[in-house]
Amino acid sequence: MLNIQYIHHIAIIAEDYEKSKNFYTEILGFEIIREVYRDERKSYKLDLAINGKYQIELFSFPDFRKRASYPEAAGLRHLAFAVEDVESAVEYLRSKNILAQDVRVDEYTGKKFSFFEDPNGQPLEIYEL
Fold first, then answer.
1. Core-most of 22, 101, 110, 115, by most CB within 10 Å?
2. How does pLDDT run across 85-94, given as a tens digit for each residue?
3. E-state strands within 1-129
4. Domain architecture of the chain: domains with CATH
5. Do residues 58 and 48 lie in contact, with contact meaning Cβ atoms separated by under 8 Å?
């Protein structure tokens, strides 16, 4: 057994790096830990945290490929964020012109949730604590 303690981070490749950087920092509220430009790869790497904990690596690559299909492409299906109040989170996202689905209730847990996308079409979820 590997004795995994927790998920360390999620890596996301941005189609539009500046737009994605703004989305994750200014709209979702992630803190920048560090940002580096890797000249040999012509790529930015932005390390982001929430509540002081490292969570996301945001990359830019000049030769990225678009997601094959939505949402059932092989690989990461979506990234979920825990929130106290799903309804107010949906209102906030919509106030920032982000299309968020109507709030639904998980039939197994009874918790509220909603889906939306980042600027790269990456499916994101907000899920009630």
1. 115
2. 999 999 999 9
3. 10-14, 31-38, 43-50, 53-60, 79-83, 104-105, 112-117, 123-128
4. 1-63 (3.10.180.10), 76-129 (3.10.180.10)
5. yes
